[in-house]
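assembly run, all chains below
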Amino acid sequence: MKLLYYPGCTVKATATEYEKSALGVLKEFGIDVIELDRWICCGVYHGLTRDTAYQTVAPIRNLIWAQSQAEKLSINNNYLLTLCSMCYNTLKSAHLRYLKDENIVKRIKAYLNDEPEYKGNINVIHFMQVLKELVGYDKVKEKLVNNLKGLKVAPFYGCMLLRPREIAIDDPENPQMMQDLLRILGAEPITYPYVNQCCYGYLVTRRPDLVWKRNADITNSALERGARIFVTTCPLCAYNLLEGQKNAFGDVKLPVFYESELVAYALGKYEYLKDDRLSMLKNILDGVK
Amino acid sequence: MPGAAEPAKPFSIGKVKKEKLEGALGAEKKTVTIYVMGKGYEVPAGLTILKALEYAGYRLVRGVGCRAGFCGACMTMWVKKGDYKLYSGLACQTVVEDGMYLVQIPFVPAEKRKYNMDELEPTGSVVLAIYPEVARCIGCNACTKVCPQQIQVMDAIQEIIRGNIKKAARMVFDCIACGACSIRCPAEIKHFHVFQLVRRLYGKYIAPKAEHLRKRVEEIEEGKFEGPLNRLIEAGPDKWRELAEKAQKGEEVEI
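ok done. output:
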């Protein structure tokens, strides 16, 4: 199956371990990931601007380029894969805004008159949805060679995959997608109140003190319930969880992994993990056995 | 003689852009009216904006440079009658059209930040630390639309954000620092300074080093050319003249 892929800046610049492991895992399940020839920042920086047309221009431009490339390559499934939760949220929200709000369509068409028209067909899909809905967890189960038995994991969805409700990939109040996959890998997901809560996101640029406090609270809650690692799919959550611990505690008590890294490990495909990440994960697993 | 048997063609239009050709030949009228900073002038059709300005009596001190489309000094912006779009181009490369309202932009206000090339790394975050406004790009593409060099300006800025300095530097190689993009940018990015930094990072840290150049520098430092050079200096002007004449005739010259 061919899947067009919108990477986003963060997985190219900082969260490279996420891209490496996620694309590796998808390859194992026969998914032919094709990166867009042309893409720009999804537009997440402007998520809080009052003018919703302004923040819709960049994501719709990306969706238009995806549409053009799908036509060029005759890919008819309309999917556009994202890894970063922020990118998923921004692109998907813009797509829905475009379908719902005629006024916005009119305004941004005037801006985007250098591009073909967006037909509104691109289905932005997140890595977790691909594993669950296109691959299927039972298929994942068949290929496992390592068991993460004994590893207590604090899953952390953050906001971007669950809010607003219209674009949620799972039940926003009681998401189970990550936990279900973790159980299949043999790990033990803990239940704690912060699972679907906010890491305070971009507040880190203005009020890091609040963000450190918040992420210390999240970490303490996970520690109390015996977690050994965090698992997320959001590079910004990962950043805040790590930096929050460093600033609040002076060191990292709970390392942060991407869900795709655990899957790659469980599949025995160590080449999809960065060396330092692999040895860290092995050390933790040795500790729990 | 190539083509001697064929009747000579009046001229070849080669790869002249369609709009340029229309400006130069299509106009029925022999003159066109342009408005320079609001004042109308009738100028011969077919002139470049630069020549039309001079025809109209302007003595250009700024806003003119190489007159060959390389230096970027004569960036000009205009609108056309009945068209809301703002156009931009180099005055020395653009033919006047009837009803152009134009102004030259000889300088774009921008601060070139100070940095020490020896202390940097070729990463996107280094560029963002020096020019943080790069992160404000909203993807409107106004910069690309206005670039007289047909650079994909927005895409290059985006490559920087995602840390691909090599690709960004290669994309902006043709930048002539006219600043048209920076004037149009709603994020107030000063692209030409950013791009200069990016090319410097590429040249210093990423581009493969020229092996022959390294060898030659080593030879110079070891003094390989000291002997001949000193002998040449000692020989004096009369000998130089003699050697130069010999060389001009194509004879072997040795010192």
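Chain A touches chain B at residues 7-9, 12-13, 38-41, 43, 45-46, 54-55, 57-58, 61-62, 111, 114 (CB under 8 Å).

The beta strands of chain A are 2-5, 32-35, 79-82, 123-126, 152-156, 188-189, 229-232, 256-258.

not gonna interpret more than that til we talk
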